[in-house]
Amino acid sequence: MRRIATVCVTLAAAAALAVSGATAAFGAQGTLYVDRTALPNPSGCYDFEAIEPLVHNLTNDVVIVYELPGCRGEVEEIVEADDWEEDVDGMSLFVR
User: Fold this and answer.
1) Does pLDDT of 23 surpass 70?
2) Which among 74, 75, 54 has a CA at the least distance from the CA of 64?
3) Exposed, middle or buried, 87 (CB in 10 Å: 0-12/13-18/19+)?
4) pLDDT tens digits along 52-67
5) What is the pLDDT, as a whole number, of residue 27?
6) What is the CA angle 18-15-21, rounded to 5?
7) Which end of the chain is more exposed for a tag (fewer CB within 10 A), N or C?
8) Which pairing describes strands 55-59 and 44-47: parallel, antiparallel, or unpaired?
9) What is the chain's Cα-based Rg?
């Protein structure tokens, strides 16, 4: 009887994880362009080497541009969803 209860609890926990996984955050939906580089459904921090690139945010979330690589330092710019910025100062960007 104890073994059946353990199996039922394990199955219930697995089902709960499967359901909650369906609603977990997957990052922004859409495409982010840094100059000519397309980043589909971006999430997290991205370093870029372009000098003052065009950032075209065709996602459903904001993009935060940082002055240093690794999304460190001061926030240089915020590019809203469905917007773009030319000549962006910074060396990395973050998408939730």
Assistant:
1) no
2) 75
3) exposed
4) 999 999 999 999 999 9
5) 83
6) 15
7) N
8) unpaired
9) 20
